[in-house]
Amino acid sequence: MLRKGTFVSLFLLPAMLVAGVNVCSDEGEKPEEKKSSKFERLDANFTFVRQDLNVWEDFGQDKSLNSFFNKLYTLEKEKKGKVNILHIGDSHIQADFLTGHIREMFYMDERFPMSARGFVFPYRMARSNNPKNFEVNYTGKWTGKRIAVRKHKSDWGVAGYTADTYTDGARLRILPNADSVCVFETDEIKVFDQGGLKAFDVNYNTEGLGVDIKRTEAENYTLFESEKPLDEIRLKFQKTSPHQSHFMLQGLYLDNQKPGVTYSAAGVNSATVNSFLRSESLSEQLQELNPDLLVISLGTNDAYNDAFKEYTFKEKYRELLAKILKKQPNLTILLTTPGDNYRLRKYVNMNNVKARKVIMELAEEFELAVWDMYTVMGGLKAIDEWYQEGLSSEDRIHLNRKGYMYQAELFYEAFDKAYEGFVQRKEREKPSKDIAAVAR
């Protein structure tokens, strides 16, 4: 059995699963030599990548990340508490190659136990691409709506998607560990929906399950609690009174009671900053999810537009940040800058330089943290180097699977530098505090 601290490449995963290797088990004997908490890189020799600038820059003078790092520190040292991270963005996030690999790296890092799968949306129900690491099956007719499509109107939340059905008796089945490096236990499920008198009831399909499921209704979600972990999520949507007509699904949160890190992702194909401003329930759902760190990766689609205006982009992004922070003024936020890309596969995109500048300025204005992917990947025309090294797709906008894996490792390395810096500062302060306490 593989243990935490062992780096697992996604390229090896299919063969391992076929062979029956449980890469997430903590059972069995510990290996004689335990690897360090550091991870192995795909390749550290890309000269075009600015390793020297690969940092999480904190414009809050090392304070904006403190609450997040403090919770991580408690988890590392005492193995207590939950640390919830939510990463929202565009198509770079929806497919979950980038965020999925970050999640796996948290698992492989022996310092931090992992907890639950976290927030998911069954994109397949909305006729969109679903991450490969969880499987979705359903019955009934469902209509998907996406915040990035101007003609679509809906009550969106964090996911930026909704799936709506008028089919009485429609069902949803999710296998949260269908093709995942990490096997997450789930015994609590929150089903987020529009609510209201017209909404169908959502119930857990317990047929043949042999487990008691407690159901609790809240204003905009239904909570299911199981007496033991569930291998699959099985929901049914039922009309139980004449005034009910449909059900609008906004997403699910898969949880458990174990301490550890949860790394959730919610991406929307073609999303811009303005798209997320259309999400009426975004702030309320963020309050309910209550992340210890919110990562926002937007700007690629804004800057891809030939009519991109730096001032308008800044105003809209400022509006989005203000909207989020109005409800949660102490929320820790990490912004990321969009990577270099081409427009229409052949035109150098100078707009990303402007988008990067805006994001750095807003991070300073709101005293947030930022990871400058644009600079780290090499800046203007760096996408050519990534493509030549087999890290980018043909469109020179999206990375390929290997590229997203490498981006995830750069992200995690920058996180590790920031966290280790925090730990060193914290532990330097300890002796002086202890001496002061004894003196008193």
TrEMBL record:
InterPro entries for this protein: Ester_Hydrolysis_Enzymes, SGNH_hydro, SGNH_hydro_sf
UniProt cross-references to SUPFAM superfamilies, sorted A to Z: SGNH hydrolase (SSF52266)
Location of the SGNH hydrolase-type esterase domain: 260-404
Any one Gene Ontology molecular-function term assigned to this protein's record: hydrolase activity, acting on ester bonds
Keywords: Signal
Pfam families in alphabetical order: Lipase_GDSL_2 (PF13472)
Secretion signal span: 1-19
Name the record gives this protein: Lysophospholipase L1-like esterase
Taxonomic source organism: Sediminitomix flava
